[in-house]
Specification:
The chain is built from 23 helices and 18 strands. The protein is α/β, with parallel strands linked by helices. The strands form four sheets. It has a six-stranded parallel sheet, with helices on both faces. A five-stranded parallel sheet has the order 8-7-9-12-13, with helices on both faces. α4 (70-79) links the parallel β1 and β2 (86-89). α16 (425-436) packs across α23 (585-597). The protein is globular. The protein binds thiamine diphosphate and magnesium ion. Residues 499-501, 527, 529-531 line the site of magnesium ion (MG).
Length: 611
């Protein structure tokens, strides 16, 4: 069809696409020219903002574009050369924050996120809440137009606010709205420092449209030096007292949660546990303790707490839950520990508590409460324990035997239903282990399928990077991609178990992984539904003495079943599946690993048992 005919017919055909391309080229050449009346801005304020951002050492800025930061976007690309920071194109703001969240845990430093002030920040908010709950730094820049007399009529009004941070203020550690470039420099550096000081948290800085787009008028702008605070160690005398209690105990227990920030934290906890020959329960907020160490007793949490006389809590997010059971839905409470148990807690929790969001969990007193960063406090505590110089080797022997029994029990439990289809999550875990055991692997999201923590030998901090923090579903996919990006620089092989429901909140992150060549193996835990919610419904139906078989209604993601391999392939990600036969998983993983090792993401979809 001729263009003329098409225009006459007024219908779209393949030729229409060609027309659109031609028009885009025309628009592009126009855009390169100045329009009548244009005043050239030689050095926009956003260039200086890039100077500031560069001093922070941010390697990446994850973003979904928006005109409220169009000048800053352009400055990052052209003035900053799109290097340190480099923009990561995200198809949803929640994915941008999720990526920054996962990245920070793997890289040990924050990623930037650039958001369209109102609507972008609204999309991003759950991701920010997850990062808040997980005590992870994210450096957020939100574009906004404050001066009403300068706003373009229409959309810019809909996308402007008086107070851009208001809607997330309860779950960022600090925010500011700079009204001058000097103000921007000082607040950005302050925000970075605050975000990276434990307890680490997201921060938000507004980037005003006029400040970005206007010529730099100010003279003598200065960027303050970036110096990070050293985390605080708990009071030395209190640590000495803790050492006395722990060495005097018959049955001490150590429980660690969001404690280790890096391998040093793991090493220091091993040293303390060995000095005491005390069992360690790793709750998994971070990888705190090697899973094959004879003092690792993570599966024995309840029995250990029941028998303990002293319990040491290290950055435990839910202290009450360690000592109490709470039946659901009858809410019967039961204190499970000995009445005389002594509780020691080392945490920064008291420093960052806020009133509205309830992530601080139920109040649990500690007999010795030490405000300080647990990782920083461990060496001094271990030193005090060693000074007392008691020998606990007999206890160590008993614990070694109990550890072996615990691991054997986990292996036996994992073998149940080995050959069934749909595949069990334990078999899924074993197949992945078979594929990666000789590699420098990292399980980038480690809370959704928990078998790995029970079955795989883990020694390194990067081998289990925890979960979402706030259980806001939708973290697992972007969190994995962000962590994989950090792991790429370290030469680590990133793998993740990807739940189906989680992926479908914002599956465009697969495209981001393909586009930015982020090597990551997604192994789908595809149970074709929101299974946790199925269990809730089944429970309710049983209690109401009604039909349990209808629990899938409202919770199923089936009929039609989503073809995750096609979903991935359509975004440029190599993929296979759906696999139903457990024996087919291993060979598919081998093919996927080849792709991942070549520097790209890959996805293997496996139809699994619910849990
Ligand atoms: C944003 C958000 N919406 C809803 C929920 C409630 N929720 C908790 S678990 C869950 C199911 C998630 O499904 P999937 O990721 O497939 O995991 P599965 O339970 O099937 O293993 C849902 C919807 C939530 N936690 N977060
Ligand atoms: Mg599911």
């Amino acid at each position: 069809m001729e263009r003329r005919d098409f225009l006459k017919a007024g219908i779209g055909t393949a030729t229409a696409a060609a027309t659109v391309v031609a028009q885009a080229a025309e628009t592009k050449s126009k855009a390169e020219k100045l329009l009548p009346g244009d005043i050239v801005v030689e050095r926009p304020g956003s260039d200086f903002m890039v100077d500031v951002i560069k001093t922070l050492g941010l390697e990446y800025i994850a973003t979904n574009p928006g005109a409220s930061f169009r000048s800053l976007h352009e400055s990052v690309v052209n003035y900053g050369g799109n290097r340190k920071p480099e923009l990561l194109t995200c198809l949803h703001e929640e994915s941008a924050v999720g990526m920054a969240h996962g990245y920070a845990k793997a890289a040990g430093k924050p990623m930037g996120v650039m958001l369209h002030g109102t609507v972008g920040l609204q999309h991003a908010s759950m991701g920010i809440y997850n990062a808040w709950c997980d005590r992870v730094p994210v450096f957020i820049i939100a574009g906004n137009g404050l001066d009403a007399s300068q706003r373009r009529p229409g959309t810019e009004w809909n996308h402007s606010v008086q107070d851009v941070a208001l809607m997330v203020r309860d779950y960022v550690k600090w925010d500011d709205y700079p009204v001058s470039l000097q103000h921007f420099a000082e607040s950005a550096v302050r925000a970075y420092k605050i975000a990276t000081t434990p307890p680490c948290e997201p921060v938000l800085i507004g980037a005003d449209i006029d400040l970005q787009e206007d010529e730099i008028h100010a003279e003598g702008l200065k960027i303050p030096k970036v110096v990070q605070s050293r985390p605080p160690q708990g009071d030395r005398a209190a640590l000495a007292e803790a050492a006395k209690w722990l060495t005097g105990a018959e049955a001490p227990v150590i429980i660690a949660d969001r404690m280790a920030r890096d391998q040093q934290g793991v090493r220091d906890l091993v040293a303390l546990a060995e000095a005491l020959q005390a069992p360690v329960v790793d709750l998994g907020g971070r990888m705190n303790f090697p899973t094959q160490h004879p003092l690792c007793h993570s599966d024995r949490r309840r029995e250990l707490v029941r028998d303990a006389d002293v319990v040491l809590l290290l950055e435990v997010s839910d202290p009450w839950g360690q000592f109490n059971t709470f039946s659901d839905p009858h809410k019967r409470q039961n204190f499970i520990a000995k009445k005389e148990v002594k509780i020691i807690s080392i945490t920064m929790q008291d420093v960052y508590i806020r009133a509205n969001y309830q992530d601080f969990q139920r109040y649990q007193h500690a007999d010795l409460s030490i405000s300080g960063d647990a990782q920083t406090s461990l060496p001094a505590l271990a030193e005090e324990v060693k000074k007392i110089g008691k020998n606990f080797s007999a206890r160590g022997e008993k614990l070694r035997a109990a550890h072996n029994t615990m691991r054997a029990r986990a292996r036996d439990a994992a073998a149940v239903g080995w050959d069934t289809s749909p595949v069990t999550t334990a078999r899924l875990t074993a197949e992945l282990w078979g594929a990666i055991k000789g590699e420098p692997w990292s399980l980038v999201v480690s809370d959704r399928v928990t078998w790995a923590r029970r079955l795989w030998p883990m020694t390194e901090h990067h081998q289990a990077l925890g979960g979402s923090g706030g259980q806001g579903v939708g973290y697992a996919a972007p969190g994995a991609v962000g962590a994989a990006l950090a792991n790429k620089a370290k030469g680590l092989l990133s793998v993740t178990f990807q739940p189906d429901g989680d992926l479908m909140y914002a599956p465009g992150v697969l495209w981001t992984a393909a586009y930015h060549k982020i090597p990551l193996l997604f192994l789908m835990h595809n149970n074709r539904g929101y299974y946790q919610e199925v269990m809730h419904l089944q429970r309710m139906a049983s209690l109401h003495k009604r039909r349990v078989d209808q629990a899938w209604i409202g919770n199923t993601i089936d009929n039609p079943a989503i073809d995750y391999a096609k979903l991935a392939q359509s975004q440029g990600v190599w993929a296979e599946g759906p696999i139903k036969d457990p024996k087919a998983i291993g060979p598919a993983l081998q093919r996927a690993l080849k792709v991942v090792k070549s520097g790209a993401p890959a996805l293997v979809d496996v139809v699994c048992q619910p849990r």
